[in-house]
Amino acid sequence: MRIKQTATNSRNHLQMGIYAVINPLVKGMIKLHITPNVVTTIGFLGNLAAAAVIVWAAMRPTGAPVDFSMLTWAGALIIGFSLFDMLDGQVARLGNMASTFGAMYDSVLDRYCELLTLGALSLYMLSCDLMLGALLTFLALVGSIMVSYVRARAEGLGIECKIGFLQRPERVVITSLATLATGIAGSCGAGFDANLILVWAMGFIALFANITAFARLAYSRRQLTLKEKK
Questions:
Q1: How many other C-beta atoms can be found within 10 angstroms of the C-beta atom of residue 228?
Q2: What do you get for the CA distance between the two ends of the chain, in Å?
Q3: How far, rounded to the nearest angstrom, does the alpha carbon of residue 210 sit from its chain's CA centroid?
Q4: Residue 58: CB partners within 8 Å, gap ≥ 6?
Q5: Which residues contact 153 (CB under 8 A, 6 or more apart)?
Q6: What's the rounded Cα separation, in Å, for the pair 14 and 28?
Q7: What are 116-164's pLDDT values in tens digits?
Q8: CB-based burial of residue 76 (10 Å sphere; 0-12 exposed, 13-18 middle, 19+ buried)?
C-alpha cells in the first residue's frame, strides 16, 4: 500500500510540475480560441506522423541497412506530440470547455495513437527479422488496450478503476524514449544491435501492461463482490 501511495504521489508531483511549465502555453491557446478537440486532433496527427515514419523505416529494400535516423525522428515526434494529451485536458479545464464528448474523443484518439505506434513498431521488428521483438510488441499492444478496456468496463459498472503500475503515460514515455534511444544508438554505430533497446522496452510493456490489466480485473471483482454484499 505504501509503495502504491508513493508511486501515486510521485506521479502527481511530476504532473503538477509539467502543468506549471505548459500552463502559459495553455492560456495562449485559450486566448486564440483553440478548442480542446483541436488540440487532441493535433496530438493524434503528430502520433500518426510518427507511426508513418516508423513504417517508412520498415519499408526498405531487402538487405538494405536500417536508417536509424528515422527512428530518432519518430521518437522525437512521439515525445513532442504526446504532450498534447496533457494540453487538451488543461485547455478544457482552464478554459471551461470540458465536455462529455470531448473526454470520449480524447480517449478514442489515445487508443488509436497506441494502436498505430505499436502496430508500426511491430512491422518494423518484422522487417528486421526480430520475430521475438514483433511478438513482444504485439503483446504490448494487447496489454495496452486491455488496461484501458478493463477500466472502461469497470467504470460502466460504477467502479472507479485507475490502479496499476503501467498506465498510459508510463507506456508512452517508455515507447518514445526507447524509439529515440534506438535511433540515436543505431546512428552512432553502437557496438551492439540497437534494436535490442526496443525489444527490451516492448518486453517490459508487454509484461507489466498485462499485469496491470489483470490487477484491474481482480480489483473490479473485489469491488463488485463488496457491492453485491451490501
A1: 7
A2: 25
A3: 14
A4: 120, 123, 124, 126, 127, 128
A5: 220
A6: 22
A7: 999 999 999 999 999 999 999 999 999 999 999 999 999 888 888 888 8
A8: middle
For 164: left if phi > 0, alpha if psi spans -120 to 50, otherwise beta; the answer is: left
- Name the burial class of residue 95, with classes exposed (0-12), middle (13-18) and buried (19+) by CB atoms within 10 angstroms of its CB: middle
Q: Which position has the grid cell 489515445?
A: 110
Q: Please report the DSSP string for 184-223 in residue order.
A: HHHHTT-SS-THHHHHHHHHHHHHHHHHHHHHHHHHHHHH
CB 213 within 8 A of CB 143: yes
C-alpha–C-alpha distance, residues 43 and 168, integer Å: 15
Q: What CA–CA distance (Å, rounded) separates 121 from 125?
A: 6
How far is 218 from 170, CA to CA, in rounded Å?
21
Measuring CA to CA, which residue among 106, 101, 88, 77 is closest to residue 172?
77
| pTM for the model | 0.86
Is the pLDDT reported for residue 1 higher than 70? no
Long-range pairs of 50-53 with CB within 8 A, sequence gap ≥ 24: 50/74, 50/75, 50/77, 50/78, 50/81, 50/117, 50/120, 51/116, 51/117, 51/119, 51/120, 52/120, 53/77
B/e letters for 4-32, b = 16+ CB within 10 Å, e = fewer, are: eeeeeeeeeeeeeeebeebeeebeebbee
Per-residue pLDDT tens digits for 2-50: 445 444 555 556 566 666 667 777 788 888 888 888 989 999 999 999 9
DSSP state of 166: S
Q: At what angle do helices 36-58 and 68-82 cross, to 10 degrees?
A: 170
